[in-house]
Amino acid sequence: MSKEVLLNLICGDNEECREELLNIPKELNSFLGSSQLTPSLKSFTPPLLKQVENLGDYEALVGDQSLGQLIVARKLASMYGGSFRGWSEDYCPICGRRPQLFLVRKVNSAFFEGKERVARCVCGFTWRYKWWRCPNCGVEGRENFDVFINEKLEGIFFNKCRRCGFVHVEAYGEVDEVAQYALRILANHVA
Ligand SMILES: [Zn+2]
Ligand SMILES: [Zn+2]
């Protein structure tokens, strides 16, 4: 799947929009690198973001509440993601979000060859996830979803829950970070 196609779908020929999208990962990383702050946790209860005592310091640092929270969440994911191996809930243990993006990857072992689906949160945390389950209302089964595709986006499926309307994206193959952001944006525009 080409990133160029995604950029076109979201931004058309708006250069500024394209620049912004392309720079998201770089910008987040530069904030992470420059900040001397460390998130301090009240307790180790998921979602961890809710336990951060100095969240306000981050929000003040970047001058934006949701960006500040995203930066803290990414930091927490890199620090503590390993503590949540085997996580199987419908929300992210780091930031509490419902996952919107799912990556499908091949799994091969000596005895088994197949695919697995992992939820990829915007904070960077990744966990294995059931097939055909809505992360918003928990309904399960293929029959509960309308599937939308765009012929320009190979290997990308937008699954809309018939019960609650939540849209999640399933992506087969390599999807870099810019494309991941772009797919989440597109998911919010599936009617
Ligand atoms: Zn998260
Ligand atoms: Zn649902």
Name its key features:
single chain; 191 residues; 2 domains; 5 helices; 34% helix; globular; binds zinc ion
Could you please describe the fold and organization of this structure?
By secondary structure, this protein is α+β, with helices and mostly antiparallel strands. It has helices spanning 3-11, 15-34, 55-62, 65-80, 177-187, and strands at residues 101-108, 113-120, 126-128, 145-148, 156-161, 167-172. It has five helices and six strands. The mean pLDDT is 92. 34% of the residues lie in helices and 18% in strands. The chain has a six-stranded mixed sheet with strand order 3-2-1-6-5-4. It binds zinc ion (ZN) (2 copies). One zinc ion (ZN) is lined by residues 73, 92, 94-95, 97, 121, 123, 125.
Outline:
Helices cover about 35% and strands about 20% of the residues. It is an alpha+beta fold and about 190 residues long.
Largest sheet data: 6 strands, mixed
Secondary-structure-derived class = alpha+beta
Distance between the termini: 22 Å
- Low-pLDDT segments, ≥5 res: none
**Integer count of domains:** 2
Strand order of the largest sheet: 3-2-1-6-5-4
Helix content: 25-40%
Mean pLDDT: 92
How would you spell out the order of helices and strands?
Answer: HHHHEEEEEEH
* Helix count, DSSP H or I runs of 4 or more residues: 5
Strand % is: 15-25%
Q: Rg from C-alpha positions?
A: 17 Å
- Give the assembly state of these chains: single chain
Q: How many strands appear in the DSSP assignment? A: 6
